[in-house]
Amino acid sequence: MKVLVFSIGPDRYCLRLGAIARVLPALELKHLPLSPAFVAGLMDLHGAPVPVIDLSRLAGLTPEQVWFDTRIILVDYPLGGGATRQLGLLAEHVIGIETLDDNALTDGGVKAAPFLGQVAPGAGGMLQLVEIERLLTPDVSAQLFQETPA
C-alpha cells in the first residue's frame, strides 16, 4: 500500500494515497470564530470554501510554525450516505511517499486518539495510519459541513 508520510510533532504518520485528492502548499486561511482550536480555518479553493484542520492541534500538540514542507492535504471526507465533502489537513513536515506492507500493519494493542489507526514499520521508522473517516466528531462535522438551503 502506498502512503503519504508526514510528521505530527516528533512522530511519523501517514495517509493512504487513495484517500488523497490533492496536496497543496500551505496558504493563508480565514479564521472561523467559535470553532474548535484544531480548526485552522477556511481555504479558498477555486472560489469554494474548504475547511482545514490542523493535525498537530487535533493530536493535542502545539504547532511549531509553517515550514517550507508544510502542506494542506485535501481529502474527500465521508459524510454518510455516500456523500463526501472536501476537507483540508494541515500537516507539518510532509516527507513523501512510502510503500507499506499490508501484512505488517497491526493494531499493536495500543489505544490512541480515535482518528489513529494501525501501525507498521516504515523506511524511516514506525508509521501510524490516520483514518480520515474518524477525524471529526459528528458535532464538528455538522458545524464544518452545514447544509446549504436549496
TrEMBL record:
GO-annotated cellular components: cytosol
Positions of the CheW-like domain: 1-141
Q: Which Pfam families match?
A: CheW
Matching InterPro entries, A to Z?
CheW, CheW-like_dom_sf, CheW-lke_dom
Cite the PROSITE patterns for this sequence: CHEW (PS50851)
User: What does the record list as GO biological process?
Assistant: chemotaxis; signal transduction
Q: PANTHER family annotated for this entry?
A: CHEMOTAXIS SENSOR HISTIDINE KINASE-RELATED, PROTEIN PILI
Which protein, by its recorded name, is this? Chemotaxis protein
Q: Which organism is it from?
A: Massilia eurypsychrophila
